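Sample intake sheet
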Amino acid sequence: MDIRRGKQRSASQGPWPTMGLVVACLSLDGAAAAADGFRGDLTVAGRFDERPPIAEQGNWIGSIAPEIGFSRHAAFANYDAFARRRFDSMLGNAAPRPASDVARGTFNGASSENLSWDVVGDYYRSRDPLDQDPRFTPSPGITQSARGHARLSLWRGEAEYQAQNHNNTAPSLSDAWSQAATAAIFPMRTPQGAWVMTGRYQDWTNDSVRTLAAVTGLTGYRRYHTPTVSSELQLGAVSRNRSSEGYESPEFAWTVAFEGLLGALGLPLSSRLRVGHEVETTGSAELWHEVGGLKWTAEYSRSIQAEGGRFSTPTTRDYAALGVENSRLPVTLTLQGSYGYSKPPAGQGDALETWRGEAGLSRAMQPWLTGHVRYSYLWQKDGGGADFHRNRAEVGLTAALQ
């Protein structure tokens, strides 16, 4: 959100007693696992957005959202995909208009102990900041974002490719694209460990201009302590190319990774940790646990991102998220929250902080009909002190056709 162009506040400055009561009662949908084959859903909802009314449209909005999907779970591979479009109808203009599109596809499997793969893709298109991809900084106007990830793992090596794109319709905002391709070979490998040699290429582009690129070479050792616990250390060099000025002299690079470390220490948690220094020091940490219908996840990452929007250069982005889902209650309760901090290079704009939160309840009223209530919150603040926030309360019904 361009705070300098659109500093906005809701008409009411004191909604918190009411909103606190809503938060205590609400949660997200707890959708049951779908059987194999095609499926279709239709959601009808009404919501109240606490924001300055747009012309005479008001704060009350009705919506209808059809969704189609397909899934298949076989012995060696799983497929799942869905696409959803939401139409909004506002006060004073009952004709529904497209408001947001969301699509996701996954394909993963393992045909043997030494061959596995994952392919994941996400697409968002929305004019509403609350419905944009939470991993990007919200922007005004219609935005489109897409992210993809593919991985192939073999006995003698592995390969991985990641890409993301963010486009904005507002003329003062920039578009962005980034990609990373990684290939590793295992010249020597045993069931207990492997000698690893890794090559990686990354680039970041803003408004069709490549603003940063990096080529990295690493070598090291990966140790398989147990089937669920592993560690890795690699050392090498990285060369950077800033604004297509040519590659710089190589500098020292390193990466350290652990998987399943907390479980090995006796804690009932699954975990993954990776820290390294290439363009700059970045890393990620994940925790998750599931037992008896209760599951929670936590993650933190620091990365170099081509976010676009008000940023015309790559940013250093810190992102943290927490999610909880409890289906052991008479209703399904889900809570989600995230925090993002995007900082451009010195002298190239203010940093942005973004807080998001969602809470809700859902319950199956019939085998084919689910009702839900939901509350969403977004708050964004820049380094200059300007801020923007949005509250939303929603009630809806989802009919499943399968």
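Comment: The longest helix spans residues 16-25. Residues 26-401 form a domain with the Porin fold (CATH 2.40.160).
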